[in-house]
Structures are given as structure tokens and as C-alpha cells.
TrEMBL record:
Annotated region (Disordered), positions in chain: 78-99
Basic and acidic residues bias (residue ranges): 87-99
Origin species: Vitis vinifera
Pfam family, one: Abhydrolase_4
Every Peptidase S33 tripeptidyl aminopeptidase-like C-terminal domain range: 14-85
Annotated TM spans: none
Protein name, as recorded: Peptidase S33 tripeptidyl aminopeptidase-like C-terminal domain-containing protein
Length: 99
């Protein structure tokens, strides 16, 4: 989700689904303060992960760590709805590890 200079977070729609925000600690494109503002804007459905010693290109700089957080977020079971549990698909991080 890219923000233009003149656009405010309050103009963005609220997200009600569980949301994972992954941010590089040293990101010069979008300052770290923006990550915290985005988390506050989304609210309790958002989880903010700040990856240390990485900039804007997390997928290129620390692909294994990125995959770890994505896998955890996508694969951890959600509370059952209507007594039904959902099965997740496997996520293979090997493609990222080979880079």
C-alpha cells in the first residue's frame, strides 16, 4: 500500500481482516514512523513486524526472515467459525532460500 506525499492515512479505508504489516527498520522510502501510524489506523486487527537491519527491499535483503513471518501469519490456525476448522495449504520457502 503506497501513500503519496499529500495523502493522509485517515483517507484510507479501514481493513477489518487480520493484517500483517512487515517493515524494514532502515527503510528510507517509507519511514518507520509511517509503519506505526498505519498500525494505529488499522487497529487491533493489524500486527506490525519490524525487521532489523533491513531497508525497503525486505524480500531481497532478508528473504528467509520475511518468509518466516509470512508463513506464521498465513499458516497459524484461526479460531474456528461455526464449529468448523479450516485447513491451510503448505507454503514452501525453499524458493526464497535459494536466492
Amino acid at each position: 500500500m503506497a501513500l503519496h506525499k499529500d495523502r493522509k492515512l485517515s483517507n484510507l479505508p479501514k481493513i477489518t481482516q487480520p493484517t500483517l504489516i512487515i517493515w524494514g527498520e532502515l527503510d528510507r522510502v517509507f519511514p518507520l514512523e509511517l509503519a506505526h501510524r498505519l498500525k494505529r489506523h488499522i487497529g487491533e486487527n493489524a500486527e506490525l513486524v519490524i525487521i532489523k537491519n533491513v531497508g525497503h527491499a525486505i524480500n531481497a535483503e532478508k528473504p528467509k526472515e520475511l518468509c518466516k513471518y509470512l508463513k506464521s501469519f498465513l499458516m497459524d490456525p484461526l479460531p474456528p467459525q461455526n464449529g468448523k476448522s479450516s485447513d491451510g495449504n503448505k507454503i514452501d520457502c525453499k524458493a526464497l532460500e535459494e536466492k
